[in-house]
Amino acid sequence: MRYVLLVQYDGTHFCGYQRQREERTVQSVLEKAATEAFGTFTRVTASGRTDAGVHARGQVCQLDAETSVPAHKLSACLNCLLPPDCKVLKSAVAPEGFDCTRGAKKKTYRYTAYYAETELPLLARYAARLAVKPDLSRMEEAASLLEGEHDFAAFCSAGSSAKTSVRTVYGIQIGSEPLPEGQLYTISVTGNGFLYNMVRILAGEIFAVGCGKSTDAIVRALNGGGRTLLAKTMPARGLMLVSVDYGAELFPPEEV
Amino acid sequence: MRYVLLVQYDGTHFCGYQRQREERTVQSVLEKAATEAFGTFTRVTASGRTDAGVHARGQVCQLDAETSVPAHKLSACLNCLLPPDCKVLKSAVAPEGFDCTRGAKKKTYRYTAYYAETELPLLARYAARLAVKPDLSRMEEAASLLEGEHDFAAFCSAGSSAKTSVRTVYGIQIGSEPLPEGQLYTISVTGNGFLYNMVRILAGEIFAVGCGKSTDAIVRALNGGGRTLLAKTMPARGLMLVSVDYGAELFPPEEV
Question: Is the ipTM of this complex over 0.90?
Answer without folding.
Answer: yes
